[in-house]
Every structure is written in C-alpha cells, then in structure tokens.
Write a structure and sequence with these properties.
By secondary structure, the protein is α+β, with helices and mostly antiparallel strands. It folds into two domains: 38 residues; 41 residues, no CATH class. The protein has a three-stranded mixed β-sheet with strand order 1-2-3.
C-alpha cells in the first residue's frame, strides 16, 4: 500500500467540505488518507476492508513472536528428531 503524497494527504477542513469525495477516493484506491491539522499529520482514514486485512495480518505476525523467541533461545528440535520422538512416545510404527 503506497501513499501518494499529492492525493492522500488532506486537511481536516478538506474532509469536512468533501467527505463523500474523500470516501470515494479511499474506496477506489484502497490507500489510506492522512488527515492533517495545521499542516501536521493528525489521523489516518482507511477503507474498512483494508483495515481488517492489515489487522488480520498483524495478528498472525504476533503469533510468531513466541516461535522466534524459542529459536533465539535454542528451544527447538529438528523435524526429523521431533517426529522420531513423537512416533516413539505415541507407539506409532513405520
């Protein structure tokens, strides 16, 4: 999701005057709009479906944190050794 500085940075005043136009732009481009107050970024407005996609991706990434910590702390087994031990513990032959 690339931001277009000429199209995607708008003032709060512009949003108030052209709400429908800004919303149409967001839905069409799927890019967020940065809202400014006195020339400084204040908030970001984005398409709800795009927000859900980003939130879902972020939540999946958070699930990887414990696994990365395990690898960093050498708390892992190679798959071959894991499955060998698993089969032995579950009394699975073959």
């Amino acid at each position: 999701m690339t931001l277009s500085i000429t199209e995607d940075i708008r003032s709060i005043t512009d949003l108030k005057r052209n709400t429908n136009s800004v919303l149409k732009q967001i839905h069409k481009t799927k890019r967020p709009v940065v809202l400014t107050v006195n020339g400084k970024a204040e908030a970001v407005l984005m398409d709800a479906k795009e927000y859900e996609k980003i939130t879902n991706a972020f939540n999946l990434l958070k699930l990887l944190i414990p696994a990365e910590e395990d690898i960093s702390n050498n708390r892992y087994k190679e798959s071959r050794a894991f499955f060998k031990e698993f089969k032995r513990d579950k009394k699975i032959s073959g």
